[in-house]
Amino acid sequence: MAENVTAAHVPLRGVSILGATGSIGTSTLDVIARHPGRFHVVALTAHSKVEELARLCARHRPRLAVIADATLEPALRQALARAGADTRASSGLPGLLEAAQCAEADTVVAAIVGAAGLLPTIAAARAGKRLLLANKEAIVCAGALLLEAVHAGGASLLPLDSEHNAIHQCLAGAPAGVGSEDGYGVGTGSGARQGVRRLILTASGGPFRQRRDFSAITPEQACAHPNWSMGPKISVDSATLMNKGLEVIEASWLFQVERSRISVVVHPQSVIHSMVEFGDGSVLAQLGTPDMRTPIAYALGLPERIDSGSARLDFLRLSALTFEEPDLKRFPCLGLAYRALESGPVASIVLNASNEIAVQAFLDRRLPFTLIAAVIERTLERTSAAAPRSVEAVMEIDGLARRQAQDAVARAGPP
Ligand code: NDP
User: Fold this and answer.
1) Which residue, 8, 16, 30, 330, has most beta carbons within 10 Å?
2) Percent of the chain residues past pLDDT 90, beyond the cut
3) Distance between CA atoms of residues 139 and 249, nearest Å
4) Looking only at Cα atoms, what is the longest distance across the chain?
């Protein structure tokens, strides 16, 4: 792919953002807008927020806008015209795939929420893009297939999730090569790193870290995260600690490391975003204020460090940094995710699909917070399938698990 070069000899990168209207999407656009000579926006996508998408198009002038709900394409055309945006409208899966693969974009930000992001994410990998991955559900469902697609397409995969981004930063200086004399190491191929004893993912503990009675939790309370401002699904996942479970699975794929060498530690201040412990006893950590623009800027700018707009960390104003063991009794979703990772790829797909159904039912007030884990556990018990060898097979297992989970929600009844 030919690279445009600006006067300052910084390559001008074309960026497609899948899920542009969401929390990660808008944070990415905020970082991009700080660097007009470095990035140009090529395509933006949304699910149903037509007006919001048109407004972003008027501001960032992409060539292509895609609305995933195809019935809304005429409304998008009208909204683009009203907003005065000279952007072509498209819709549905074909539109998402075009945004993921188009030649002018060398960078694709995968920020759709849920397994709905899987097909365009894989398409971007196959097309050899710099793939900036926020959509953790895609790698949880299809880790092996996504990595295969990255390899086959000659793509690069950079994590946006703050924990994995932190680990990526901590591993940057580690010597290449998987094993050391003690057998420590992570990764395969050119990304392999020597001497790594364990990855330590930090977790804020969410809004209910200190709460004992979970009986009357509302969606508003679950979405009120103490440190981070995020979309509703990941906010509920943070409240149940499923988010950390999905991240453990994500880390095992991204860094090619087994479950026993990934630890989770609750760190309520969200200052340390994650750590790597080496065989010599050194522990490297990445710190910063809790603002997703920092990991986004790191991944967008690599190998350079670029301004993110995040507030700077003021050590003299920090309270104590504290650490706790996660409580698997009060937060059973984390334990379910550990078990799913150990059981294999089918369980990870079922875990993710049933969690998406249970979280949506909770957000719609059809399921109490306390039964989210029960719906997932029941679905895991009732869904079996052969290990998937294709993305289509993953989608089939995902669909089966969703139907089982809907059934479990219906049986559980409203709060
Ligand atoms: P949001 O809910 O804020 O945004 C989701 C985006 O995806 C929106 O643009 C939405 O469009 C679009 N979308 C939703 N459903 C579909 C669908 N079926 N097909 C196509 N597009 C769809 O989510 P977040 O930005 O919070 O999270 C996005 C991803 O990033 C998630 O996987 C999350 O786990 C991950 N992540 C998020 C972090 C955060 O701080 N927010 C941190 C780390 C990871 P519309 O607006 O039209 O509904």
Assistant:
1) 16
2) 89
3) 8
4) 65
